[in-house]
Amino acid sequence: MAASNIRKKKHYLYSSIVEAQYHGHSFLLKLVFVSNRGNKNKYLVLATTQTKLSSEEIIQLYGRRWQIKTYFKTSKQYLALDKSQVQSYDG
Prior knowledge:
Elements: E1 14-22, E2 25-35, E3 43-48, H1 55-79
Antiparallel strand pairs: 1-2, 2-3
């Protein structure tokens, strides 16, 4: 199969590595600006200290994290898991 000249669509608007400071400590952050699915006129900023990751990898990791977060929120809301307590590993 011949290689295609079609360029893949970029899933982010811009990315940059910046120096940040917190409580007197300096560290590098990679910022990835992505368009907001709900409102194309707005964007989200994803931040990580893993500066060697590509912008696409960062977007994928945040996507997975968001799926896990919404799963637990839904579980708590509809299955009342936030009201149950387990005293031991065996239940």
